[in-house]
Design goal:
heterotrimer; A alpha+beta (about 450); B alpha/beta (about 240); C mainly beta (about 250); A: alpha+beta; 16 helices; B: about 240 residues; alpha/beta; 6-stranded mixed beta sheet; about 30% helix; disordered C terminus
Chain lengths: ~450, ~240, ~250
Amino acid sequence: MPNSFWGLARKNLRRNLKRNLTTGSAIAFGFAGIILLGAYSNRVDNYIRVYTIYAAHTGHVALFAKNGLDKFGFEPKKHSFSKQRQLEIEGLLKNDSRVEMFEPRFSGVGLISNGCKSIPFSAVGIDPQIEEKLMIHPEVKRWTPQIESIKKGVKLVDAVKISSVAVVSITQKVASALGKEKVKTEFDTGAAVKVVDCESSVALPQSDASVQFLGNSWQGGMAALDADVVSIFSTGFDETDFSAIRMPLSVLQSFYDTERVAGYSVWLKEASQLKSFIQTFSAALNGPSLAPEPIDLIPWYDESLSPYYAGTIQFLNAMVGFVSSVLALVVLFSVLNSTTLTVLERTSEIGMYRSIGFRKRQIQTLFIQESIWLSGFSLGIGLISGFVFVEMINRMKIVYHPPGASGGLQLVLVANVSAIFVWAVVLLLLTIWSTRFSVVNKLKWQISDLLGGSGR
Amino acid sequence: MSNRPGVSAVPIIELKNVVKSYRLGEVVITAVKKANLQLHLGEFTALIGASGSGKSTLLNIIGCIDQADSGIVTIGGSDVKQLSDNEKSDLRNQKIGFIFQNFNLIPVLDVYENVELPLLVNGTVESARERNDRVLEAINDVELSSVIHHRPDQLSGGQRQRVAIARALAGRPSLVLADEPTANLDSETSSKIIDLMIALNEKKKVTFLFSTHDERLMSRVKRIIHIKDGLLDSDSGPAHESGT
Amino acid sequence: MIKKVKLLIGVGLFVASSPVQASPSAEQLLKDSDRSRGALLEVGGMTWQASVITLENDDKIELGYLIKIRDDDAVAEVSSPPRQKGERILFNDRILWFYKPGLRKPISISPRQRLSGQAANGDIASTRYARDYEGVVKGEELVEGSPTFVLELKAKGKNVTYDQIRYWVSKQDHLGVKAEFLTLSGQIFKRAWFKYANQLTVKGVQYPFVSEMKIQDALNDKNLTTIRYFSPKIENHPAGLFNVNNLVK
């Protein structure tokens, strides 16, 4: 029994052309809107993901001493790894084929001074070579090309060659607060470092790129360090830019007089291996050990490790999901309204089909195929429009200032092909469902009532 | 058993004590009261009655587009009450053709496509070629070959009704039911349509049953069934044979 | 009658001419207690040793210092452990500098910054509460059976170790025996107790000198730092020792 009426269905679209155009427009622009929203969400999601994993040195997995994520700052000695444990962990990481690279984690707080004025700092010790690899990583180049490792000066990996003392990278806000906007390479080499007269009423000119760090040594007593500012960087966030410092890990450890580390950031070759890595690596680390310091393995997207990512994405998903659902509902109701009217107008025609031998299911199929033509065509228009709008917006190079972010961010949309496909299917199914809903109810009528010729 | 020339002796339609009522608000109206009727292959029959007499209801019951409340309706030897909805659809498609008062053509389809409609779901048509042959044959029968690609809005009333007749015949039914087929046509066109139907009845040996209240057509018809207030009042041959 | 009047006048004159034991002022109490905590202003200079023992988070850290005083200046040099030898804190009145070998120049620090555990930088040099705080005697209390004056001290300026102090000074010998260190909002964040087992002879007069200051975290009494002072002596030091520009040499 034949069940396909594509030709007839296509021709029937010419009836009620205005209404079909209106319904088609609702579908097309609703879909285009969903594409735009999805493109924005896709880009933001990937931007923050890549920023979190690579630019922020989080890694795909963070390895901490037990409870170290929360407690390292308060009890660093207790929640860190000894040298012995570090050797064990690094040995396992080097031998794991899933691991692309890893970096010890170490951070601390204290005061940074220009000789007269001190402000609090929050320092992260990094491996300059890992930093270099992260900044040229394909994911970073694809999703966050505008993030530079430094805004000005010399990268830490190169800077160790130009200074006899420790080298540091500070943010613009820290530099402004201390009057250290110029970096080491902007001064003559060999310029002496002077003790400044802080009581002098004359404004202190910036005479060098020297800064000093003060903190509490892990061995008791005070920790102090001389360093040269070799570069200016940005964390990307206003809040953290007020106190962020980066320096080589060994320098920071030396400052606090310790060999211990808080943990490791681990980057995997394939992000999809994350869960299996956590499972198997955890088991390996809990095996026999000369320094059985328990560990926590935390995936990068965990809210405790990446609160900004988790919070932003939750909010974004909620917003985009809500708006997309509203758009889908609008499309649904447009189609439902249109098909209800169409079925109403074609009641006697349905009766005619039934009387000449069309089965109920065949009439249903006919109307559904009409809907598929209409929505298919409209989705196609919507798809093209969506991509055109995405391209237009990207070319406009709109810069906006998200709350908390330092500097502006260019509005870039990246279409998410799989999401587009899913939404297209959803919208198509909604259209089919609403058509079926309208037709099925009508098909319950007696044929004579459909024809309207019963004489009643 | 009928003794009319060109008419089969075996009834293709049989009604026994068929009753049909319907509710209009609080009131129950019996549109058909204990109808007993036989129709044979090749008959050309008019069902005549005033408006509201029950003729459309009776046609609907015979055409399986309405269901009797009681009684037996047999079509081609099958009791329609025993048939499923799909079986009734197939019956209508393959055994019965319908002609409507207001044509019921699809405005976006041309003559060919309108006539082809019932063949799209006809399970007995084995190929597109056979379907094409049947469509062309039906169009030829109603003499509309010259306007085969015209749409209904490009045709006159009479031409549209011819298209409807061709559509009804495309499936090679044994019975054609027409509910007031000339009601929307002028007298000259009406006469031509009746002539066409008579010619097709004689040529194709298809049973025609049509309802009308136009008495001018009665003289052209071989059998007349009167219906009044739901009752089959009389059942006779052509008016000149009965002497009325 | 006249005899009675004469008697009355005589008694009145006698009472008027007798010295009355008035309560000491807060300033006097602070000056007196400061003397036993290193602020012997009449001597040119002093030297003593201090050990700072910190118990915190199941950890014990011990640091040794040699402290030299000259008028309002002081320098505290780490004597132990060996890895921290050479570290110095210079006190130029209320301006503090820290230096350790390897630094290109000294670092300006604050007296209220943490030295070790509960001890602040300002705790190991001489105490000058009379100079740094505005005091008011609020009442009297018994501390371990001894009567004391209770003083409320408020910082005179910003560059002092604590914003507010509640200070118990013994009535008998005007020694500071107990202190509570308060935030600006009046919350206690540290407590301290003092002992004076050392003796110092100045111009033939023996004075008690602080031997121990125990400082405890008000929120976690397991966190405790004890500063022990020993071998105090009068000693002159050259002015150059307290010059910040000489720290690097």
